[in-house]
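quick one, 1275 residues, struct below
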Amino acid sequence: MPGPFDPLSSATAAAPPASDPSFSVYSAKVELDIDFLARSVRGVAEINVQPQSKNLPYIRLHCRQARIKRVTVEGREARWDHNDPHSHIYLSEKSTVHHHKVLRQKVEEDGGEVADENLWVFVPPRVKIKELDASSLDALSMLGDLTAGGSVFAPLKVVVHYDIKHFREGLHFAGLEEGDTRYPHIYTQNSQFTGSASCLFPCVDDASARYPWEISIRCPRTVGDVFRKAAPPLTNGISDHPSTNGALTNGLPNGIHDDGDVQMLDADVDNFGLSEEDKALEMSVVCSGDMTDDIVDPKDPSRKTVSFTCANAVLPQHIAIAVGPLEHVDLSDLRESDDDEMMGQAAIRVHGFCLPGRSDEVRNTCMALAKATDHFSKTYISYPFTSYKIVFVDDLVPEIAHAASLTLCSNSLLYPEDVLDPLFPVTRKLVHALAFQWMGINVIPKTSQDWWVIYALSHFMSDDFMEQLCGRNEHRFRMKQMADRVVELDVNRPSLQALGDFLDVDPSEIEFMELKAPLVMFILNQKIKRMAKMGVTKIIYKVLLQAKTGRLQNGAISTEDFIQIVDKYLESKPIPDFWRQWVYGAGCPHFYVTQRFNKKKSVIEFTVKQTQGDRSELESRAEDLDPKTFLKDLNEQKNGMSKKRPTRVFTGAMTVTVHEADGTPYDHIIPIHDAITKFDAPYNTKYTRLKRNRRQKERAAAAQGIDLNGDGELPDEIPLYCLGDVLDTEKEIQEWGFDEWTKEEEEQMANEQYEWIRVDADFEWICKINFNQLPWMLVAQLQQDPDVVAQAEALQNLSSLQPSKLVSTYLTRTVMDRRYFHGIRTLATEALAKCAIPRIDDIELNWVGLYHLEKIFQELFCLPGSHMVRSNDFSDRSQYLVQCAIPRAIARVREPGGKGLMRSKMWILDKLKFNDNSHNEFSDCHYVAALLAALAQQLGYKDTSTISFDFDEDEQDEIDFQRDALNEIERHRRLDEWIPSYQNIVTVTALQCQCLLMENNIIPRKMLDFLQYAKPGAAESVRLKAMECLIDLNMMRHPAILRYLIFTLAYDPSPYVREQLYYLIGRGLARIAIGDKKEEPSNQVFGGLIIEQDASTDSRAAMIERTQTLEGAIKALKTELGKNKVFEEQMRNALTSPIPSLKEWVRLLDICGLVFEPKTSLEVMLKLPLSWKVQNQGKGKMRFYRSMPYRQKPLSKIKQEQASLLQQKAAEKRRRPSLADEPNKHWKWQYPFVWAISFYDTQTAHPGSCVKAADTRPISKATRVTFPTAGITLL
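---
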């Protein structure tokens, strides 16, 4: 095995040359014997390989962190060579953090998605490969894997005996740390990328090898048996001492609590503080496939063996295992009786598993899964497996891990029935996990660039079900929000297809693909439906059918395969521009649309201009680096993620709907082919507009008590349907302070030729549309268009208008009308905050937006005629969401100088003080958190000016309010410690409030306020928030904080905490690198006084480089931390930790690369050898011994070309043991190297003198070391 400083060529010097695969895997069988306390596994992997020819000299497998003990091929002992990538995760005694570049080069090929096979099994010469008769049954069963006319060979059975004594990845042990009060359980760490399975068992771990599996797991029978051991007690058992912070150990019942202090006198289970009930809990094994056996070991009743069979051919990374005291919840019982009768025997069994005490939460969280299973089976094809299992565990990264017939989920997704906020997002995630069984496990991507197909189709399946479950408005409104988000994010990004190569760079890449890919499928569905087709649902059915029938080879789909299926379905109506723009192209179009009515031609003249490629947009002012995305930007740059320019011209058809004067909508299709498109839409109405006049007449008639529906004035008109027609009586108008259209505006409205115009009415584009309409047209669209997307567009345009009483009036009516979708009402609530200003352009507004927000809350949630808040009632979810949105909107109300308005502060504080949830069946934790955040946002005002001529007359009131507000935040924080809220959200919000106030210098900065929550024992969400606050307050510069954060990053047992902390530390490093952005020193305004200051051009240029370019930020970071001894010491200590996975270890090296200059040399001191002497002792006896002086010259000079040959021979003779063999032992390198050496003083050498060597390490006695530059050989 080569060391970290060996030449790259030596890594494969002893291995056979790589060649094309000459076999395929027929089936695999794995037997695992799990030891919880030792956290080790003994295993046997039996792999049946199918040779493709008679000449098969070796078989290449993937195997990480395992110690191979024995390998047989067809029962005969086989020679093997194992190059474990985990053996590179170590530092020599003389290595420093400056060697990060060399260390990373040795492991980077193993840390990515594709890694070379590292276990070479040489087929023994006596094993002969037999060719089968093509007509035999055995041959016929294998013909499916061969091409037509190929020979059929008998499979070879490869058996690998191994053990894993130390796990870095692949299998996670939870609940076994000292002081950890959780139930002990383990689970596999599955990933959508290759490499995770080979960390647990040898296999062919690539993205295309699919084969059937048999899994056998031997484990303790009960929780008591987990801790029963014959060996001396280990130090990693469950402590019998209670947690240091019991209120925050776990907000929900998942812990083992001791019954008292017990002395550990022997190895009996009773000494671990377990109750008798806890000891008797049965250990359950859940695995991919179907259970075949559950047998208690006859020789050891404390252990059992559970066997599973997965008959479907699946990828190794899709084999998942979970072992623990899991409670079973039959989710099939939640299926409605009608659906149960309809599905009959075809109904799929759905099983839920969780740790003890959380079964009710599983039922509540997974309530929709049985219904979703039936929907997918009826809409598409039958479920590819026999049952579906979902298991909830701790510390899982990411939140959901997909496997064959099994999904591993984080316990953070569980929520009780009295919590409302997680309802929709969690249900959508779980439904998508179920859909992934069809499209993701059953059908896989052919290459990494085809991942977008999997994400697009699986999310379309889940969104289709969610639309049926939650309604069309919910679905379309979320699609509108997703489209706006994609337009915002899809800047300088690669195409959707090319993004698949970079999904492992940062989690945000997967998030973006999960955002854009479903939208692309949504607009494709809109386009197909316009062609009178069934839509994408039929296409998904065809994809699954082809995978089932074998037309999709190996069940793998490519982009070209999917396009071919779509084109065939469209029947000679291909859409090549669609794929070019949305799959192979990058960016989103920006349309600037104008219209003009040509009365002479009786047409509406449209001009559509695309601006996404304009120089003005591409050369916009550079933005400052964002600390939250600093690591992502660095990783993208390092991995060569190119920034692709947006497509210059998007082409296609766009639907424009004109609602003409008589209220009739007319659709017009505008073909867009160029950057500027002009189109004339014919005008159809031949008489003046009537609708708004009728509205005014109805209002006047209602005021006079005249019924227009009887013999009224407008008998020939169609009855008007209109939302937002509330609060329109004269009394209500005066009470609410509403404003109405002026006579001039009404006359102008009467002369308009149409009510309103919608661009892209069919929602077939992911785009930004700039289309200015008059205010009354926007109001008409908001009130009269039934499409929730049209209403959202109208609200967005209304909120962008100049604030006025009229705008506030219609926004208020929108909030008050319960017929609107709740998303529209909350959008209107947020828009009202923009109207909460005192004046604009000498027009007095008198905080009208704030008054309307207060009035809305009083009308909906207070006692009649009073400002006293009613007891909470969240039974109406729409009203609950509005109730939470109003405090968030009021929190944004500010004085012109940016300071929080006292009126708003007192309003929020009163609602927090008098909040009453005693008669509410639902929890108010999220509502209280919203009030706390709003209160801190109002308090958190940072006065950036250094000179002020404004004197606050109410300074004492401000001090009193600040004291009351801080006391209220502290009261809720302490209350949450005694009565924990859902996921301790109140404590998390209170910590965020404290951080915001400290950041704005409202209260003094105190590290201890956060350190008490950052230590182990607190809930994970609280710990991470506390550490996030420390980093946001720039406390990473403090040596003690820096030590603790780096130590936690390297040694915390939870992979979830390590994962999140890595990105938090990246944010902290970004803050140090970017520095504190100071205000421009020139032309600052203070109370109307302009103070001019001169600034150095060089300093301003340096600040711009530091804050706007990655190169400048990295340069500044090296200056700030490059000589920080504390950071250097802690990073080196982190690199020696036995806990981080291979990927995490590479991340640590990346952090070192940001701060420390790389070095490619390692200085070591070598003793010069003594000279050999011989003494003739007579009678044929010769005595050889070493004595002075030291040798300083080689015996013979070795030529430069001989060095590599000697090095290869030395490497073939031995193999350095892996760190996985003995993790606690510090191994030294024992491999040769071509040394570069220089003498200190060769002329005055004396006994004990040394030489200085570069790029060296300790060497073994038997190693020949050559020094070509000095012509020296040491033996």
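The domain at 23-82+118-227+278-311 is CATH 2.60.40.1730 (Immunoglobulin-like).
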